[in-house]
Structures are given as C-alpha cells and as structure tokens.
Write a structure and sequence with these properties.
Helix content: under 10%
Order of helices and strands: EHEEEEEEEE
Number of strands: 9
Number of helices: 1
Distance between the termini: 47 Å
Radius of gyration: 22 Å
CATH topology of one domain: Immunoglobulin-like
Shape: elongated
Structural class: mainly beta
CATH architecture of one domain: Sandwich
CATH class of one domain: Mainly Beta
Strand content: 25-35%
Length: 151
C-alpha cells in the first residue's frame, strides 16, 4: 500500500535523452556555426529521496548537495510537500577544456502527503547536504465505550 504518493520530475541524470539532446545540439550547432553553450543548469534537478515511516512520524530525506539552508524552500501546498532550491556553477577559466558531470540548477521535488499528518508541526534540518523533513502523524481520536441508558 502506497501511503505516501510520490510525485517527481525525472532528474537530469535519469533522463535517457538529455545527453543525446546536448550532443545533437552541439554537433548541429557547430556545423551550422550557431553552437550555443550547453546549459544543463537550465533544467530542474529532482533530488534523490528516501522515505521512512515510524510509529509517530514520517522522515523524508533529500540529497541537496551544494545548497545552503538559505537557498532551500519547503512549503505545503494542496496536501503536497514542495521542496525547491538552486545550486549554481562556480566560475571557471575559459582558456582550456573543462568537463563536469555535476548537476547544477534548480532543485524541485513534490511529495504527496497522506491523510492524517500534522502539517503545522513539520520540521526541516539540513546537515551535510541532506535535507531531513520530519512529518508527524496527527493524533488519532481514541475510541471510547458509549454507555447505554435505560428508559
């Protein structure tokens, strides 16, 4: 049973066509004399997620390397957690070849919340590039016995 429906975009690394698209753009652009620099950071990157359910809380862990806490926003919208952030490339000298496989850009992840969570008590902690969200379960009403009266 999927208690936590996960909504996500495909990350650049998981998109089977992104490298092909960049290669074709570079090849045709160079041939036509209109090559533009490949800007992978224009795409959204969907951070890798881990979800754990405890007795009283859900923990959501997202890899957010290279982003400071001030650059991350966590909101709740329409029963979804929305996590956004942005990492930027460092300036590099342009007088030589440079290869990078690191993903830069806007991080974006939507995580559907199950019924019965207390959105007012969600907490976030960023440590060593990992964002941990604590999503407490709402207290369920306790059952009770109804006394029967006689007339």
């Amino acid at each position: 049973m999927n208690v936590f429906p996960v909504l996500r975009e495909v990350s650049v690394a998981q998109d089977p066509f992104w490298r092909w698209q960049e290669d074709v753009e570079q090849m045709l652009g160079g041939w036509l004399g209109t090559a533009r620099p490949v800007q992978r950071w224009e795409r959204r990157v969907s951070p890798v997620m881990e979800l754990e359910e405890g007795d009283e809380v859900f923990w959501v862990r997202l890899d957010m390397p290279g982003i400071e806490a001030e650059g991350i926003t966590v909101t709740v919208e329409d029963q979804k957690l929305v996590v956004t952030g942005e990492s930027r490339t460092e300036s590099r000298p342009t007088d030589g070849r440079y290869v990078s496989e690191r993903a830069y850009g806007r991080y974006y992840r939507e995580i559907g919340l199950p019924a019965g969570v207390d959105v007012e008590k969600i907490e976030a902690l960023l440590k060593n590039g990992v964002l941990t969200l604590s999503v407490p379960k709402a207290a369920l009403p306790k059952g009770r016995t109804i006394p029967i009266k006689t007339a």
